[in-house]
Automatic annotation (TrEMBL):
It catalyses: L-seryl-[protein] + GDP-beta-L-fucose = 3-O-(alpha-L-fucosyl)-L-seryl-[protein] + GDP + H(+); L-threonyl-[protein] + GDP-beta-L-fucose = 3-O-(alpha-L-fucosyl)-L-threonyl-[protein] + GDP + H(+). It is found in: Endoplasmic reticulum. The keyword Cell membrane does not apply. Its main location: endoplasmic reticulum. It holds the Pfam family O-FucT. Keywords: Carbohydrate metabolism, Disulfide bond, Endoplasmic reticulum, Fucose metabolism, Glycoprotein, Glycosyltransferase, Notch signaling pathway, Signal, Transferase. This is GDP-fucose protein O-fucosyltransferase 1. Its EC number is 2.4.1.221. One of its GO terms (molecular function) is peptide-O-fucosyltransferase activity. Pathway: Protein modification; protein glycosylation.
C-alpha cells in the first residue's frame, strides 16, 4: 500500500551526507515553513513529511525540518522530540529543495524573521475540541504532542490564521503565494503537517524522486 511504502522508503533511504558549515545560515527572503509532525507514530510522520517537503517546494519556501515525535514508556505522559538528524542525514534533501534543521532555525534565524511576540500559527479553521480551548483559535498547543513539541523550542503563539479554503495541492500554489507573500509572512507555522492524509499520489511520486537522489541505502547512525 502507498502509505506503508512511503514510510518504509523514507526509513531506509540513505540520507548519507552531513550538512556542514562553519558560518550561520543566511535568511531566506522567500520565507520558511514550520510544522509539528503531530499525527501518529513514525510511519505517519514520515509520510506527511514527504507531503510537507513537496508543499514547501511548490510554494518556494525553505522547509524547517521538525523534530520527530516519539512516545516512550519512560515518558508516557508526554511525547519526546527527537532531532531530525538523529536518524537521517540532511544534505541529500538539499538536492531536492532548501531545508534547515529546526534547532538551527530557532537559534540563528527565528529571532530575525519570527521574533517573540509576532508568532502566528496557521490552521484550516478553529480547533476547539478541548475544554480549555480559546474561541476562534488554532489552539496549537492544546494536547499531546502539540504542546510538548512547541514547548521544546520555547514557542508561544500570539495569534491564529485560518487559511481555509486553500489546500496543499499544486492547484493552490499561486494562491498561497498571493495570499501569504514572504515579505508579509516570512514564516508559515502550521499546527500539523501541511500535507494530505491519506498520502496523495503526488506525494507517493516524491518517494521515488528522493530515493533517486541517494547513492547508498543506510541510516544515519549518530556518533
Amino acid at each position: 500500500m502507498i502509505v506503508v511504502s512511503l514510510g518504509f522508503h523514507l526509513l531506509v533511504a540513505a540520507l548519507f551526507w552531513d550538512v556542514s558549515s562553519s558560518s550561520s545560515p543566511h535568511v531566506d527572503p522567500r520565507g520558511y515553513i514550520v510544522f509539528c509532525p503531530c499525527m501518529g507514530r513514525f510511519g505517519n510522520q514520515a509520510d506527511q513529511f514527504l507531503g510537507a517537503l513537496r508543499f514547501a517546494k511548490a510554494v518556494d519556501r525553505t522547509l524547517v525540518l521538525p523534530h520527530w515525535v516519539e512516545y516512550r514508556r519512560a515518558a508516557a505522559s508526554s511525547s519526546m522530540q527527537i532531532p531530525f538528524d538523529t536518524y537521517f542525514k540532511v544534505a541529500p534533501l538539499l538536492e531536492y529543495h532548501r531545508v534547515i534543521l529546526m534547532q538551527t532555525f530557532m537559534d540563528d534565524i527565528a529571532g530575525k524573521v519570527w521574533p517573540v511576540g509576532k508568532r502566528t500559527v496557521f490552521c484550516h479553521g478553529p480547533r476547539d475540541m478541548f475544554e480549555s480551548s480559546e474561541p476562534n483559535s488554532c489552539n496549537a498547543k492544546e494536547g499531546n504532542p502539540f504542546g510538548p513539541f512547541w514547548n521544546a523550542f520555547g514557542i508561544d503563539f500570539d495569534g491564529s490564521e485560518f487559511y481555509g479554503p486553500l489546500s496543499y495541492t499544486e492547484s493552490d500554489r499561486s494562491a498561497w503565494r498571493s495570499r501569504y507573500p514572504a515579505n508579509d509572512w516570512p514564516v508559515l507555522a502550521f499546527t500539523g503537517a501541511p500535507a494530505n492524509f491519506p498520502v496523495s499520489d503526488e506525494d507517493a511520486k516524491l518517494t521515488s524522486t528522493l530515493c533517486g537522489l541517494m547513492s547508498l541505502l543506510a541510516l544515519h547512525k549518530p556518533s
